[in-house]
Amino acid sequence: MAFGLYLHFPFCRHKCAYCDFYKESHDHVLETRFYETLHIETELAAYALREHDHQIATIYIGGGTPSLSDLDMFQSWLVQVHRLFGCRDDVEFSFEINPESCSRELLQKLAELGVNRPVFGVQSFDRKLLTLLSRRHELRQVHEAIYLANALGYDNFGCDLLYGLPGQTGKMLSFDLDQMIDLAPPHISFYQLTIEPGTELARQAERGNLKMPDSDFAQALYQAGREHFKENGYERYEICSFAKLGALTVPGPPQAEPHLPEHACRHNMNYWTGGDYLGLGPAAHSFMNGRRFSNVANLYEYMEALEKGRRPTIEDRSGEKERIFEAIMLGLRTTQGIDRASFEHRFRRPLSDAIDPRQYKLLLNSGHVVDAGNFLRLSDDALILADEITSRLTK
Questions:
Q1: Is the whole model's pTM more than 0.70, yes or no?
Q2: From CA 158, how far away is CA 265, in angstroms rounded?
Q3: pLDDT digits over 84-97, tens only?
């Protein structure tokens, strides 16, 4: 059985004002110790899966700022991963890169290591908004990074773009959209900024120094982005995910076989469709063989546990009701929707048993929900309401 492998690289040079992901200040000595314990964790994880036939279909290196990594140590870990698990020949290998830490040498080395999908954290092209977010790259560094990715033959890479930022106007978003389309990345992730507790933006908001756009304006910004991407040859396959047109077959019965854009992120699709994934590194999450668990979100506790030969995991005690809600919520975020057969195989009950029949009928009649044979999905206009509709649908 195939699974996705995620590595959380827990180091950054500084903390962005909006980011609530776990991270520590980059330090070479600390990074060396991290990789030493990561080897132990990888060995222990492989041992735990020894009785299962697993092979890696996708790899995603996130963080943190993975592009700060010592690539010799990273390569040594990859050798171990291939030895213990093995990878499919068509493995999708994503690696997050901050534009200011991108270089020809970095991209060349990553290609040699098998990375075939760099992901660039652009976020915005507006200098004022970049300063607000505490992003340190210059606009020229974004253009240089994309130029290098194209020049070095990467035919698949992604860019992240934020909308709904404090003080962002429609004109500012239009500038960002035009800049992104000019770069023409095969994949665009278009996320609404949310202010997370404990971040610098949260502290500014508490002091009254920030005003977030209201929900109607944020939705208008999203719709503007959606239309702009569509007009320029991008297909939405998940609420926040847009990829250049092309057909990538998703396994399924021929008569009900949904198609995804060629450059859709297979790693994320695995999350959204309830596939297995193994997370390594502090704060990483896993779902393997029906078991859900996470690693402690503290680098020092993570390393100390592994140095004692113990995996630093925390079991997820949520029950079937929470799992079903999550499966419906994630499935409805995608344009293909929920695969009824897969749902029934996973939960040993039909999807119809898990949804409110009255709400289902109302949403079906209103056109928000579409019965597409083996798939239950939302209409294009209703996709942005996926969270609200999920709450109404689930029992």
A1: yes
A2: 9
A3: 999 999 999 999 99
